[in-house]
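Protein details
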Amino acid sequence: MDMRVLAFDGRMGASGDMILAALLDAGADPDVLAPVTDALEVEYKIDTVDKSGIAATSVDVFLTDDDSDGHDHEESDHDQGDSSHDHEHSHDHGNGHSHGHDHNHGHHDHGHDHDHDGVHAEGHGPHRSYLEVREIVADMDLEPAVERDALAIFELLGEAEAGVHGEDLESIHFHEVGADDAIADVVGAAALLHDLEPERVVTTPLATGGGTVSMSHGEYPIPAPAVVEIAERADWSLRGGPVDAELLTPTGAAILGHIAEGIETLPTLSLEGSGYGAGGYDLDPHPNVLRVLVGDGSGKGELVEDDIAVLETNLDDATPEVLGGLQESLADAGARDVSIIPATMKKSRPGHLVKVICKPDDRERVARALAEETGTLGIRDAGATHRWIATREFEAVTLEVDGDEYEVAVKIASDSEGNVYDVSAEYDDAAAVARETTLPIRTVLKRAEAAASVDRTGE
């Protein structure tokens, strides 16, 4: 069982157009962008540029409607502070993103916009509300999975902007981020990603850059406020530097926040392809590119190493209600796993040992939540370490009972070479089938696991 992995190298950040360009450079079919250009008055200008000696793909989004008012934009407030400050609005492409527009707009090395009659979409065109953007995306002729991802990315972007301004999601106007170029970036990235068909998408820590960014309400340090909001909700980590420029834009962060899980270093891959998406900055000697690697994630049959932190505390007076709620409350703070173990405390009194697994960067937030929820006076940190985890995937199997068909999800655990060593049906699905039939839950579980095993072996 090979797993097709798509890995982003986050050392120079990411923007919407850089993600588009990297996916195209890695072999995604540009024809899947047609629903965007059919629905909006925009076009993608795809070019090849040199970035510190690396041949990279660049993508610019242009308005095709000559009447578009290129000024209704106040710079996004957050959208990226474009370090390039050469335009006030920097938007999603901050990082150099592939377009020269974005930020670095001014200097793009693509040299193609001088011979283009259109107007850079960035910062131009109408501001749109979150609800308007959802409607535009829903009206496009998109594959269901692409539409789901695009809407989820805009929800993340909208929640971030709402969090920055203290407003409700439904009342948010995206300003720069709601312009047609942002829609082109988000929907385009979702479409190109699905065209490459990865089973897992990961990213190494994303560089934010440094310095400050000009937004409509003042100067803010990089990362911009919306990027910080998105990072709090995302699985990956941030890293400062390596230059004073806005390398990670809100749109780039939102796309990766939805599609990618965080890893510390690039995984072992049997490479099938790679791509370089150009940003708009010239940052010699640092190539301003987003690299993406695509390949088989299986290695030598080992489990996958995952960096974690382990927190623990002893509780001698926690109520059952508090203990029962810890799984949910600590997960909201970043916990990956919570174990509550009965223990004998001092003076032979009954109590509980709570052990929490989280990512190293989340340990402070998880510890605070644990203290607030339980009132514990001390939390031990076992230090950053690692765990060995199986590759997990879910397979839906169909069971026939008395002429009716029922679907049960089955979790398949394997090593990185695809050797399966555990097959377990989801209890809740099996319980639902048992309620509707005369079968015991245990029987449903066994049948579902047997069906999954047959599906995998073909026997």
Observations:
- Residues 67-94, 96-115 have pLDDT under 50 and may be disordered.
- The radius of gyration is 24 Å.
- The chain has three domains: 4-64+120-296, 304-388, 390-457.
- The chain is about 30% helix and 30% strand.
